[in-house]
Structures are given as C-alpha cells and as structure tokens.
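Revision sheet: structure tokens.
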Amino acid sequence: LERYVRGPREAGARRALPALLANYLGGVGGYMAVLFLVFIEHHAGELELFADPGPEETADQYYERQIRATRNFLPSPELDAYIERVLAEEVPFEDRPDVRIFYGGLDTHVEHHLFPDLPPSMQRRIAPEVRRIARRHGLPYHETPLLDTVPLIARTLTALSAPIGERERGRPWRLLARPGELGRRLAHGLAYRTLPESPYFAKPRFHDVPARVVSATPVAGGQALSVRIARPRGWDGVRWEAGAYLSVRVEVDGEVLVRQYSVVHEGRPTGVPDAEADGTDADAMEICIKRVDGGRVSHRLNDTLRAGRYLTLVGPPTSSGDFAMVTPPARSLFVAGGVGITPIIALLRRLTREAPGSDAVVVYANRDEDSVIFEAELRDLADRAGVRLHLYTDSAATREGFTTGRLSAEVLRQLVPDAAERETYVCAPPALIDGTREWLRAMGQPGARFHAESFSPPEVERPVDDGSRYTIRFRRSGTRVEVDGATTLLEAANQAGLRVPTGCERGLCRTCVTPKLDGTTHWESDGPELDRVTVCNSMATSDIDLDL
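Predicted:
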C-alpha cells in the first residue's frame, strides 16, 4: 500500500507513474538481490546440501553442517577501490569506516552461521580462528573471491537446471538408461513441481521423509487399511524391535497432524538371510490403520492412501522401551483390544520364529467379528505354532472360534490359570490395560512382568502451582507470554498465537522438539541441561527463550 498507492499519490500527478515504476523496480531488484545472495552463499560451487536433520541433531552436527554448507567471499580490490571513490566523491565522512562494512556479512557468512548474534565487525575478528579450528578438524572452510561468483553462478544454474541429480553427477548416462524416470523429472520441472522422493539429493533423509506406498489393502471389512511402505533410500541398515511404531505426518484441512502406527513386523537390515522368515518383506514396512470414531487422520488415510502415493514419515521406527521384547520368553501372555493387535502380531511373529516351542496365549477382544484384524494369521499361528488363541467379541459371532462376552478377572483366571508366572504384553484401550493390570496383580504377578502400550499416551504430570511466574520469549516471532510452572511450553506458544507441529502431545513422538536458547525446564532440575525440548510436556522453572 505504501509503495504502490501512497508513495505515487504523494509524488503528484505528473510524477505518479515514474514513482510507481521506480518503486516496483526497486522492490523487484531488492528481492532479486536477496535471492542472489542466498544462492551464491549456499548453493553455488562445492558446498554440500543437507536435508532437514530433524530434532535429534546434536550441537556438534549442527555446527559442522553450517561450516560445510556455507561460504565466505573474499574482498575484491576493484570493488574496494570503487567504493572508496564513491565515498570520496559523494559522502563527506569525517571518520571514514573500513570499506568492508559495505560487504555486510558476505565476507563473514561462515561466522554468521556459527555466531549469528555477533556483529560483522566481531565476526571478522574471529574469522582467522574459525578457519584454523575448521582445518584442524578436517573440515572445509569455503572462501571464494567475490568477482568469481558470476561464472560460478552460471555453471551452477546450468547444472541445477538439468534433470540430473547428485547421484547421477559424473555419470549422466545412468539416467538416460531410465527413460521413464527422465520423463517424469522433465514433466515435474516444466510444471514447477518438486518430486516427493527428492531424487536429485544424494544424502539419505531421516526426518520428514516421503515414503512410497507399495500397497494399501482394506481389511476387517473396510474398518482398517493394511499399508506396506517402501523403505526410503538409505534406510537399508535401519532396524527396529518388534513392537516399534512409525510416526506419520499428515495435513488435514490445512492443519499438520502427527499420528503413531505400530509396525507389524520386526525390522531387519535388507540382505539379512532370514529377512523373510516370517513372511514379511525386508524392503518394506507394514502398518495397519484402523478407522477411529471421529478420527481425522485415520479416516483421511483410509480414504486416500493408494499404491504409488507417498506418506510422510517423521523418522525411522521407534520402540517404546518397556514394550520391546528383548528375549523371547518361554511362557507368555498377550492381551489385545481392537487395533492393539498390531504391535502384538509383530511380537508373535518374532516369538514363533525364534522360539517355536514356547508356550504362548493370545486373548484378543473386539466389538464384533468383523473388527478382527489378522484373523487368518492368528488362526494359522494357533494351528502351526501351537499358540493358544482366544477371540472375544461384545456381540454374538456367526463364525466358529469366537466367544461372546467381555474380559474380566474371572475369565482371565479360567483361560490362563498361570498368568501370574507369564511375561505379559498388553496393547488395548486404557480401561482394558488398567483392568488387566489389576487382575494380574491380584493373581500375584510381579509388576516387572507386565508390559503395556496404550492407544493414548499417559497424561502429562504437572507440578502444583506454587505461585511462580515465568516469561517465555519466542525469539523468532518476537513475542512473549507469562505463565505459571504448571503450564507447558506448547500451551504458552498457543497463547502467543504460534502453531507448533505436534503429535502425541505427551513427549513420545518428539514431533514438537524445539531448540531452547536459554532457561531451564522441570526436566533439567535433576538432569543435564537440554539444548532441545519437547514443548508439549515441558514446563518452565525459570524464564525461557525458545527458537520459535
């Protein structure tokens, strides 16, 4: 409004058009200058490109990435002389500054990324020491004469305009042997669209990774979807324990949501000889997504996921600790409710593969017979591996092998009289987990033998409000709020009008991990200082600065 309306109007009728054009060209020139600077500082020449490292990046990894991906530009004597001449002719400085001040941060861009709070004059002072430290540790310290940037940019733009990525660089004929892939890249480029799997990028990605759906098969009468996902490139060596889960990022009506889904098999590196012993594909990860009443994500994925589409994975599969089966037990009890069978089927597959003679009992409860997932495989395990299977439904079933009724202490005692002596794994709604825990405790089972995974993570434990008040500053947005010691940092961000990506909101999925620049949280009272915190379950014990 100021640039294109008020300014030309104040210039008067005769000068309105020239003022409008000048403001337009000045704006375009300014934006182009910014793009030019960003490009030459980070994308031209031998600089390395990195994917988003995610919340697990350490401070050392962060600083190394800044050094490898940034360059400084050496001052140009010709440009210095030109600036000196302009200053002498047009600017009556009594105490003329060093002409390098007009370079801004071009000649200290590496230092700017390492120490962004320092002014360029201080960054120039520490630059020789930064260079020595980088070389001492075998890291590059990129420097380029400023006047060499024009041919450098021309070469880089030409290279980036071709449909050849880092993986084909030096051997472009490899892409010519794949005409389908070449055509796909050209079509997306002409449409100004990026390819989801980033084929131009050489480094594997482990955070917010697009993964291709190999198959999506409706199961349980359309109440759930069995989804096989191809391992992203570079994940060949990734492994996970039976019972692990994947965090999936989905956008629904403009809002980014994260949900967790159990991987229904153990993850072994590709190429392992017994990788297909339990019938699973080592090159794929399989999850099962059941429709949840009122579930925004579960319904969206059931309705839209198809083979060939992509699903964004927050990171590799994660084990929840206590629910992982470290060693297959000789005697075990598995209790599942509804979709809770998904992590348990992974445990059963491992158990029957590694300890085929073990004594295992499965008690699986559902609303009706059509809600049962993995029924055929469970019955096969019962016939082939001797697993004792008990299927319970709330409503009467028409097929054989089902019992109508709800689980109770008496039912469990009748089905598994020696349950107290068995290693027990339970995944179900919270009420069934709590009930099973109490029934087994009454039967004499030690707490160490009870392992549970709930659909709903435990509630955040909040300290009693003692009247203390803390200021939470959000550096990037320039906002702040005052909160008590029982308010989470996520709630503080919401009060400030900031939207933070979240998932479980209990600190398990780590979707909301945020750099903490200053201050302490309640997690640090008896532990080490944290550089990054899960804002969903962290509360302040001092004033805190967050990088939001």
